[in-house]
Design goal:
heterodimer, A: 115 residues, mainly beta, 7-stranded mixed beta sheet, 4-stranded antiparallel beta sheet, 54% strand, B: 110 residues, 6-stranded mixed beta sheet, 5-stranded antiparallel beta sheet, 11 strands, 0% helix, globular
Chain lengths: 115, 110
């Protein structure tokens, strides 16, 4: 398996623009997680899905952020409109099961810069 | 905050030395995991230790867990330059999600 795939790897956009980040989890994994990493706040969980259903979105910073998982092999994280403070590295991770029982497999991340 | 706190924040050692980093947390857990992150990369799982385990080994890694003190330690023996990375503990707090600690930046000099 190719591992978790994220695209794009780098995104530079201007304030106010819509940004869409994409993730393909490892086949057969039931859980998908979106994280954001910054120097100031560390690694934050934004939202996670179980069998394509959003379970906990309490980490989503505000209504400008939305995430979907239309099928088991694809998820998107959208920011609309984007702001400079959204600049961060966004990671997607997948796991075969929950309850902290299994390791999470991380993608390479998308480095987002909002000017 | 439920987030694990790690110390030290940064650690510099010479190749061949041992590196120890610690993680403390605040509430009960089922499992604790350690991850490594190389610069510019995603996190990679190193080891998982369950709440009923006290020590676990994997190659040059040794992890201990003290649930009474709510703390864990990661020991890397005979370190190599390739071990240079950030190391994170992650706890589940009896949920499906992991909460990651603040991380320890390890620098191993050749």
């Amino acid at each position: 398996d190719a591992g978790v795939i994220q695209s794009p790897r780098h995104e530079v956009t201007e304030m106010g623009q819509e940004v869409t980040l994409r993730c393909k989890p490892i086949s057969g994994h039931d859980y998908l997680f979106w994280y954001r990493q910054t120097m100031m706040r560390g690694l934050e969980l934004l939202i996670y899905f179980n069998n394509n259903v959003p379970i906990d979105d309490s980490g989503m910073p505000e209504d400008r952020f939305s995430a979907k998982m239309p099928n088991a092999s694809f998820s998107t994280l959208k920011i609309q409109p984007s702001e400079p403070r959204d600049s961060a590295v966004y990671f997607c991770a997948s796991s075969p099961s929950g309850r902290g029982d299994n390791e999470q497999f991380f993608g390479p991340g998308t480095r987002l810069t909002v000017l | 905050s439920q987030q694990g706190e790690e110390d030290p924040q940064a650690l510099s050692i010479q190749e061949g030395e041992n590196a120890t980093m610690n993680c403390s947390y605040k509430t009960s857990i089922n499992n604790l995991q350690w991850y490594r992150q190389n610069s510019g990369r995603g996190l990679v799982h190193l080891i998982l230790i369950r709440s009923n385990e006290r020590e676990k080994h994997s190659g040059r890694l040794r992890v201990t867990l003290d649930t009474s003190k709510k703390s864990s330690s990661l020991l890397i023996t005979a370190s190599r330059a390739a071990d240079t990375a950030s190391y994170f503990c992650a706890t589940d707090f009896n949920t499906d999600k992991l909460i990651f600690g603040t991380g320890t930046r390890l620098q191993v000099f050749p």
